[in-house]
Amino acid sequence: MSAVVEPTKSPNSPNREFTLERTRNIGIAAHIDAGKTTTTERILFYTGLIHKIGDVDDGNTVTDWMEQERERGITITSAAVTCFWTQKKEAGLYKAFEAVGHRINIIDTPGHVDFTAEVERSMRVLDGAVAVFCGVAGVQPQSETVWRQATKYKVPRIAFVNKMDRTGANFENALNDMRTKLKAYAYPIMLPIGAEDKFEGVIDLVNQKAILWGPGDVTNEGLKYEIKDIPAEHQERAKAGLAELIDAVSNKDDEIANLVLEDKPIEPAILKAAIRRLTCKIELVPVLCGSAFKKKGVQVLVDAVVDYLPSPLDIPPATGIELGTDNTVTVETNDANKFCSLAFKLWTDPYAGKLVFFRVYSGHLKKGDTIYNPRTRKRERVSRLMVIQGSERKDINEVFAGDIAALVGLRNITTGDTICDEDLDVTLEPPTFPEPVISMAVEPKTKQDRDKMSEGLQRLAEEDPTFRCFTNEETGQLIIAGMGELHLEIIRDRLFREFKVEANAGAPQIAYRETITKAAEGEGKFIRQSGGRGQYGHACITIQPNEKGKGVEVENKIVGGSIPKEYIPAVIDGIEEAIKGGVYAGYQVIDIKAQVTDGSFHEVDSNELAFKMAGIFALKDAFKKAGPILLEPIMKVELTTPDEYQGDLIGDITRRRGMIINIEAKQGQTIVNAQVPLAEMFGYATAIRSLSKGRASYSMEPLTFEQVPNSVLTTILDAASKKPAART
């Protein structure tokens, strides 16, 4: 194990049960149906947190506790649970932590792209992750998304190739997928013994031992395993695997490289320490395999979490910004420091009320302490602290650096807020979330439902940063927006079940965007004279395209006082309001730069309202001259189908204005990767079921925005003008 540099003063409080070195904060992340929740459920069983294993198909798993999750067999919201693991001394494996207990905080994340915000906010507070891959399908589209999210937040990870018992399972194919599609420096530390119905064990390459499971399924005890010498028929494969692993590690680690050059033996403990160093630095991805459903390989996976994924001390300390300045503040992981944490998730618990899940980065917090929110500048007293252990909400008295826990009853808090001591005026970097791509109008069925719906939508918007609700000013209709059809369907279902609100909904609408293709100048004048004091505002601006994905930038470039300083913010407010409302077709404007360059004022009649209106008029004037275009969301689609239906399904994608990116054959199946406008994907699930007799499947995720072709532009503009409620 790599040495942990101890600070001058121990980072651990004498009150804590598990030291920071023996704490792990991990996430389980993967594509939908790869087996994340099943893997989490088995981990909770083997760590003793639950005594009866639940299954996704039976709707009785711990982390999928919502009714909608259990009915659909999918994870919708990330669930945080705390469990404890003691490695078995008699097993002879992983002696770095012999018979020492560890606290493991686990977050099980959704795999469906509509709930990608849950993965995003979880990755922000994790120290490490287990990426689960299907042994049959390998790397799938959402696998790539969660991998990118882990890379974005610099989260070390290990890989678990699941479902090795399934027909068509192929460990080597999954490993090659990781290397080619994810560009991962991935190397096995375990090799499977057998596959499909003959999957009976794994070879531990580091210790050069075989781990074999007994026959059958021992209900509620899991499968017993034995550690034996590697069978003769697998010894050459084991030696070759170890040589490849040592070679891969030596390319990145000087200590192992020196031992190789000096032709010295490399002891398992030394190799393991090097693997840990590289994993913590995100330079290596150790790969394991098993079958979570059949309870094979789960204990070995938990051992690997303890041995290879970092503790809070093994990763760089969190950094924040001192409020009101650009000064960077380093938040050292130490119980003795001032308290600092990040609220990453809000949830309304049916029993406990409003829960705020938070990750502690430094210091400690006790019941009765006062905490401070730098964003709101308000203090609150901590009345209740808890951790989630299985289906139980366990009240605790104190939390320490590195812990993940929940606060009950906080007010005026949103996802991404920093919670800290009042004399530590710092804000940690919050997670970032994608913009909604789809919207629909909703209205309560009765007047009695109106107030309840308003309260329900407000609560749901607090919990979910990718869900928006607002009123269309032109029609008075309430619009909800989210990441996909399933996302909005779940929102409506929760309104009905949790808030007893029945609502009618319009057809889903696309969240188009507007932008420009060239630079232009615009002028806006607002002059009103109706007896007495009038209104006068005059502003000139220039606009130009911004880089794709850079968003909107508005600057003041006025010199010489043609517009007084006190009115400049009003002009900018007007420009920003026009940008939100759109000009070309009433959709939000993206990726432009706007500059206020000139104007004039009247000493008596000028006021803020007049200059705000002048800003709106100037933006609209310039926009119409700047080659406006409409953009539509494009989805990345992966379609898996038996070969005989390939032609029909590709033809269907082409009819939907889709572009085929590549086609690959994989174990009797054809995998089609395409890019298709979201507007053409409504009802697609029904279409492919019909075309393939129910044998094809697909997944999709947002990719980019592209210009709407002229062939469909007129139709979209006509529809937008007739249905303003659909615009966002």
Structure, explained:
The chain is α+β, with helices and mostly antiparallel strands. It has five domains: 22-308, 3-Layer(aba) Sandwich (Rossmann fold), CATH 3.40.50.300; 318-428, Elongation Factor Tu (Ef-tu), domain 3, CATH 2.40.30.10; 438-512, Alpha-Beta Plaits (2-Layer Sandwich), CATH 3.30.70.870; 517-627, 2-Layer Sandwich (Ribosomal Protein S5, domain 2); 632-707, Alpha-Beta Plaits. 27% of the residues lie in helices and 31% in strands. α12 (568-581) packs across α13. The two termini are 53 Å apart.
Strand content: 25-35%
The stretches of 5 or more residues where confidence is low (pLDDT under 50) are 1-8, 89-98, 724-728
Order of adjacent strands in the largest pleated sheet: 2-3-1-4-5-11-6
Please indicate the count of domains. 5
Largest sheet: 7 strands, mixed
CATH class call of the largest domain: Alpha Beta
The CATH topology name of the largest domain reads Rossmann fold
Distance between the termini: 53 Å
Q: Please state the average pLDDT score.
A: 83
User: How would you classify the helix and strand content by structural class?
Assistant: alpha+beta
